[in-house]
Fold:
Amino acid sequence: MKTAAILTIGDEILIGQVTNTNAAFIGQKLSEVGIEVVRTLVVGDNEAEIMHAFREYEKEFDVVLVTGGLGPTHDDITKKVVADFFNVRLVTDDSVLANVRDRLSKRNIAVRKVNEDQALVPEGCTVLMNHWGTAPGMLFEREEGFFAVMPGVPHEMQNIMTEYIVPRLKQKGAGQVIKHRVLKTTGIAESSLFELLGDMDSILGGKAKLAFLPSQFGVRLRITVKAGTETEADSVIADVESKIRSRAEKYIYSGGEVDIEETVGRLLKQKNLTIAVAESCTGGLISHRLTNVSGSSAYYNRGVVSYSNEAKMELLGVPADLLDHFGAVSEEVARSMAEGIRRISKTDIGVAVTGIAGPTGGTPEKPVGLVFIALSDSGGTIVRKHIFPDERLRFKDRTSQAALELVRRRVLGLA
Amino acid sequence: MKTAAILTIGDEILIGQVTNTNAAFIGQKLSEVGIEVVRTLVVGDNEAEIMHAFREYEKEFDVVLVTGGLGPTHDDITKKVVADFFNVRLVTDDSVLANVRDRLSKRNIAVRKVNEDQALVPEGCTVLMNHWGTAPGMLFEREEGFFAVMPGVPHEMQNIMTEYIVPRLKQKGAGQVIKHRVLKTTGIAESSLFELLGDMDSILGGKAKLAFLPSQFGVRLRITVKAGTETEADSVIADVESKIRSRAEKYIYSGGEVDIEETVGRLLKQKNLTIAVAESCTGGLISHRLTNVSGSSAYYNRGVVSYSNEAKMELLGVPADLLDHFGAVSEEVARSMAEGIRRISKTDIGVAVTGIAGPTGGTPEKPVGLVFIALSDSGGTIVRKHIFPDERLRFKDRTSQAALELVRRRVLGLA
Structure:
């Protein structure tokens, strides 16, 4: 099992209505188990095109992973073509039927013929039970070939990949391992981080690759190592990581694909601290992110989205004369909001943001993108000023990231 | 010029390090000028694979658009393969050389051999000058074929598409137009919507295609029409849309790619209504979404994330005995929260949600996924119960969507 092709089926991808994130996910997973992805193809919901691809790819590659076109409606034809290709009938799988009925009845949706048809699978395939939706995955596995079909709904496909496909491919073995490790940084620009890390050769020693992946949440560093064994790869990665950390530790908020809200959540739990949030320009995003973490009720007490000035006064006790004198977007109001939310919630930490998300509402003195982030705790109140001149949603992302990073640093004694 | 294939070259896409947004962009543009994208392929920086794809696609499709592998470093081999494929030499183009020198000198970068090599182009091609970078686009245009190669850097590719490729393809004419129209629905399952619409032939009359695209936010319906002229296509789309609307109007919250928070925002503005939100399980997401819309301060007054019971009592005035007697996740508490946030905010509408996001915290009577959504306005308070047994973040998405949908329906007199 050395080579693979990925086949995505769906008109919506061809015409660019949907970006092919499924192929990216599958490519990553195959690459992690040491299998080389040679081609990634997209075709429409078109019988001849799908059949043509099946014929060519099944012959040419060890592993063929297909996704899309398994829904219950008329435009989904993948399953029929799969059955024709392997020259078998479609038969009802009782466990899939039970799953479909169970899932729909839980949602009080009547089970219809189109739903029952989702339990039809090509005779002789291994059914990959879909516990995250109604269309099952299907696997055709022989000595010399591995051909799997998965639904196109991203989280269903991802779960089927992770639960069934990846473990089986790992077992079959590829003769090499490719390992990645991600370190997530925030609060430093890509070029500054590059300079800070300095000579790449001295970090990588010719044994690893390092990629810089910037987004509005910060710069992700990805270390990639190809090696004969897992142990060998792990040791190279550990070495590279420790060199990077010795130069940029302060900016790294997680090793691996962990978001900062989870890092912050762990820290708060560990130190037995509680938090409350007062937001203006981020409109609830900071609270949303903190509560995305399961178990966050242990440390997250409440949040207030004080969009209007009255809300700032009534809910947080911000004095009217502060708003009059300095304006809603000011260091003074941010400070008062953070202290207010901490006081009324009786939490250890109060965080507040006030800024101008844009695209309108800016002035020469207070441009779009200006934001004040305040944090109040037993040690006092600190305020940070940032300017994030960006699109509205990216501004909200960046501001929420900077606020969570301020909490992280404060709890660690770095701010 | 009726059919097209898109070929993207680059290892980083195969292994999923980068999502193939270039193919999506090109697909959209081709589709807009009436050319049908039949296949989208990704191959690595591998001579044999690239050549194989060139041979097959140039023969099979009217239009072949290639992107990627034109950079100055050793791993970029596309240009060499293009020259081999057309059996011509690489020759220096003076205007490209001047462009390369000019761009680098402006950035104070020394011009090296690898940079000068970017001015090498296959003899006889039409150079598409890259004013946004150093690697030129290349076009091979004949009566029966249109073969273009573009750099892979997204904004360079996009500019070359928009400036050169799209106008030429328009001029050549596809002899047809392809038009799409999206209708977004929510609050109805894919299979139920399919049944509700009934006989597809009577809706589509053989002149259009209809795709069902489900996500946690609802089912998007995409109507696709291929026709001789724009007017003809528009008339078919209008006809199909009116048939769909006559059967499912209630569930359609937008025509086009508009999110429900924007639809709700427009309605509130139009009817001069204000809103405030009290959230428990969604943790701020509803407020976040409402404030993603520029200008939302005109109708959005404030939000409260009352995660703890004390927050529900202190901020919203929920009586302690309601919480004791019915529990935080109950119809009664949802009602009290909605009425509370409306009272303290003095808004026209108060919306509240309380539920169990999971994965922990469920009981047999109150399972993970259970949620109560309440809306209070001058006409009284209504409460809806849902069960969304899903992953935590998808649960939050679905609940926020259902809450916004309830606002939409209420404002329109449908709930």
Summary: Residues 392-411 of chain A form the longest helix (20 residues). Chain A is about 40% helix and 25% strand. Chain A has a mean pLDDT of 93.
